[in-house]
Amino acid sequence: MKARVAGLVFSYGGFRLEIDELVFPGSQVTAVVGPNGAGKSTLLKCLAGILTPERGGTFVDGRDLARLGGRERARLVGYVPQEPTYMFNYAVLDFVLTGRAAFIPRFSSPAALDVEAAREALQYVGLADLERRPFFELSSGERRLVLIARTLAQRPSVLLLDEPTTFLDPRHETEVMALIRRLAVERAATVIVTLHALDMAMKFADAMVFMKAGAVVAAGPPDDILDEALLRAVYDVDIGIVDVAGRRVLVR
Amino acid sequence: MAIVLPLLLFVLSLNLGTYRIPPKDVLPILTRAVFSAGGGESSPAADVLIRIRLPRLLLALFAGAALAVSGASLQALFRNPLVFEFSLGISYGAAFGAALSLVFLGAKVPAQAAAFVFAVAAVLAVLFVAGRAASQVVTILLSGVIVSALFQALLSLVEFFANPYALQALIFWLMGSLGQATWTDLAISLPLIGLGVAALIGLRWRLNVLSLGEDEARTLGIDVRREKVLVIILAALTTAAATAVTGVISWIGLIVPHLVRMAVGPDNRKVIPLSAAFGASLLLLADDIARSAFAFEIPIGILTSVVGIPFFIVLLKRSGKVWL
What we know:
The structure holds two protein chains of two kinds.
Chain A: E1 3-12, E2 15-24, E3 29-33, H1 40-48, E4 55-60, E5 63-64, H2 70-76, E6 77-80, H3 92-97, H4 112-124, H5 140-153, E7 158-162, H6 170-186, E8 190-194, H7 198-204, E9 207-212, E10 215-220, H8 222-225, H9 228-235, E11 240-244, E12 247-251
Parallel strand pairs in A: 3-8, 3-9, 6-7, 7-8
Antiparallel strand pairs in A: 1-2, 1-4, 4-5, 9-10, 11-12
Helix pairs in contact in A: 4-5
Chain B: H1 4-13, H2 23-35, H3 44-77, H4 90-105, H5 111-130, H6 137-161, H7 164-174, H8 183-202, H9 204-210, H10 214-219, H11 224-246, H12 252-264, H13 268-292, H14 300-319
Helix pairs in contact in B: 1-13, 2-3, 3-8, 3-11, 3-12, 3-13, 4-5, 4-6, 4-7, 4-11, 5-6, 5-11, 8-11, 9-13, 12-13, 12-14
């Protein structure tokens, strides 16, 4: 399913996010990159329904997300938050089960079907044997995977991930990115992920969106749009691009 | 399983008290009272059991469950282990409403109705004072303190204008007591408490989702504002219905949910129903002590505070680990 942003305007204080048109193709990973304060997370939150844009809209498969009820939207769009702080130390399985909220009536509790969906999601991210562990006892990398599993249990067509690899060591960073890649390939999900690690974006993303000061500077497949001039324009720092055995590598 | 403890305590408590009724007499008296309409016999034992002890014990069960379940639900909703009926102004809002009705309105307005109106008014005031930052823990606690202080002042005003006779009754009621329960009071309070507690138990898993925070609950498909209002109204309803009859009984709403979480973990699917069972048991037990441990009766609100706080501190020190 294709996700689309059209004529979007959102402002908060002195910050203004303004995007004319942006398309996220289905079964692809799109990496949204840019300096701090560029509006990456704000864009994601508008898509997730956490923030309400002043003008314009976000569409999935032609449907205006603003016109959908909460449950309908949650079945279409899933959001993996950045570094949430929780008060209660739920067991991993209980936490992943909250991803089923859009399928469970207000005065009900999860049924066997929901537990199955949660277990399947944990299996998919490779943490099936941790289901009874308290969430706070997990490592940072495991927590990211559990957060992703929770969103998988929600079964959305569009997956939004807000900096899922920040503070992770290289191994876990690669694992999380490989998982995100698999979601687009195996589950045909439309994946939109904000990132700081440009090398990860180049390796795992089908398309990149460069943002700066609330606007889109460039969007498209990394090979088509990425050059030293763009990096200079977006980040205000010199980053070189060199060829190493047929792969483009960034050097600073 | 969890329902066994309060029921067992209930049956045992029927025998307890200054006027001892032998266990073998309890059931015959109860069955005669139920099956012979219009009062049946009027032996002293039957009088004590039917008119005094039974309503009192029922009130202990329901009020204990009401306070504990409200506290547990509010802690989950506001993601704050320090929030309970007190910290949201509900307790003193309800107390003010009930006092107003007891002193000035007589029997024209049921104390429960006045208590509910002002309990809801208090929460609304708290949410209004907190404003847009209502989701922030510190803001809401601070607003709660302010609003509680206001209602305590208004309560003092009622005391000031009450005639000496009414004042004495009012002060005794404010300390918290189950002894004044009449069937007329219970006929209003128990169904309201039953309804509120049942609804909150129904929402138990929803509270897990809400406890993750507003933004996340929203992305998971929940209409956060509506569900938040629902939980708050239910908590205010149960607390007000209990407080209108019992007066201010503190700490049950804070201690019981924590004890339950220490035992079974934070999953509200267990915490909410177990808080009901354990809150009912605890208040019943406290009342048994209040009315039989000494030659005179201690107001139960004082007892729950004096016994409850050190008990909680000991558990807090001993457990040493996070149980939330």
